[in-house]
Fold:
Amino acid sequence: MYLSHYNLAEKPFQISTDPKFLWLGEKHREALAVLKYSIINNQGFVLLTGDVGTGKTTLINALVNSLDEDTIVAVVSDPKLERLEFFNLITRAFKINKVFKDKLDFTLFFSRFLNYAYKNNKKVLLVIDEAQNISSDLLEEIRLLSNIEIPERKLLNIFFVGQNEFNNILMRNECRPLRQRITVTYNIETLTENETREYIIHRLKVAGTTGEIFTKGAIEKVYSFSKGYPRLINIMCDHALLTGYVKDLTTITPKVLKECAKELSLPGENKSSKPQRVRPENKERKRFGKRAVLYSCLLFLLIPLVYPPVSTTLKGYLTNVINFYDQLFQQLAGPAHSHKSQESEVRKPEKTEINRPLLQKQLNYSAPQPISEEVTDVGQPAGKESTDPASEARKPIDLQDCNLVIPFGYNSNEVPESAYGSLAKCASIMMQNPSIVMIIKGYSDNAGSGTYNKKLSAFRANIVKSYLIGQGISPSRIKTVGMGEEDPVKPNRTAEGRRANRRVEIELVAEGSLGTEQ
Structure:
C-alpha cells in the first residue's frame, strides 16, 4: 500500500524468505560454508542453532538454492508430529507419492530409496527446521534413521536447525546417543550495527530504490530496538514505512522509529528505571521557600530593633511571628498541597472485562449498511412515515455481525491481501459511528517459546492497527492485545489446528466497553 509513496517496486521488509533479498553478513557466510562442507563430506548429523529471528531459515533456504542436482533435499519446517505423521511428511518432502501405515513399511522403503540414491551418485539431505519442537521419542526415531548406511559412508545427512533451547534438549540423558553423533555445530549470532545498516540498504536497493529513505539516526534506532535480529529489523522497518506513509513522510527519522518502537512493544517493556523527575515548578517553589525562611529569620532579629512597638511584650512578639510564619508556609505549601490532593483523588476506573463470544468468520465478513436517517416504527411497512417521536431513534448496530478473524502464516505478521477489503469495511463502519471502538487481539500457535509467541501476537495486532490508523481511525479508538498461545480455537497437536490458531480477532464494541488501556 506504500510502494508508490517511496518509489518501490515491491515491499522490501517482508518476513517471508524471498531469496532475491538474501543478504549474508560475515557470520552467515561462514555458517553457509560450514553447512556446504558438511554435505560434501557426508558428515551425518549437523546442528545449526541461533536465537529467534537471527536468520536460520533464511540461511537454510540459501543453502538449498545453492546445491547442485546431485543432492536430493527435503525440508521439514514443522516437526511437532507423531512418529508415523513425521515419516509420511518426510516421504512427501522427498516427493515420494506413497503413504505408510506402519514403521516397518516406511523403514524398508526408505532404505531402498537411500541405496538407490547412492548408486546414482546422489547425496540425500534432510533438513529439520524448528528442531526445538521435536519430542524426545521422535528424536530417537530420527537417530535410528541414520543407521541406514553402508561401510563406505553415510547415506543420509540430517541437519537440525533450531533455537538455542534445542541445545538444552540435547543435553538430556535420553538424548545422549544422538548428541554423540552430531559432528558439526554452528551458532548464528545477531548483526552488528554496521551490518544492520548494510542489511537495510541492501533490501531497499533490491526493492527498487537507492535513495536514503532511512536517515542514519533512524537506522541507529532500528538497531537499538532490534538488537541486530534480522526478523525484528524487518518488522521495525516495515512498520516505519507504513507510519511514514500514513504521515505523508518520504524520509524515516528517529522520531518515527521511536513511535514505532512504542507501538510494537508489549505492555511493561522499555519502562525507564530512572528516578522520577522533580517538576520545574516544584524546584522553583523549594528555592523560593528556602529564601523566604532565610529572610524571615533576618526579619525576626531586626524587627525589635527597627520597630520597638511591635515588641512591647516578648510573648506578644513571638505570637505575631508564629502567626506570620503560619501564613507564609500556608501560602508556600498551598498550591503544591492542593495539586497533590487533586492527584490523590484521581482514581483509575476498574477495568471492564469483555466476555463476548467472537464469531469465527474467516474473511467472509459483510459490513452492515450505514444507519438510515429514515427510521420506521416496528411493525410498520418501510417507507411509511411514523408519527411517534420515540420511533425516530436510530436503529442499533449488531456489533457481533462486525467481528472478523484474520489468519496469519507460520511465524509471520504479514496481513494477507484478501483481508484488506474487510478491514476497510470495518474502518468505514467506525468512521460512520464515532461511538464504536475496536479491540484487536493477536494470537499464535504453540510452536516456539511463550515469550516470543506473546511478542509475535502483539506485532500482528499492531500491524492491523497501523493499517486502520492509515484509514483515518484515531489510535485512541483501538486497543491491541497480544494473547500469545492463549484461547486456541483448535488443538495445537495438528498442523491444521496450529494454522487455525495463528490469527487476529477483531471485535467492535460500544465505547464504554474498551476500558482504560489503549
Summary: The first strand starts at residue 45 and ends at 50. The two ends are 25 Å apart (CA to CA).
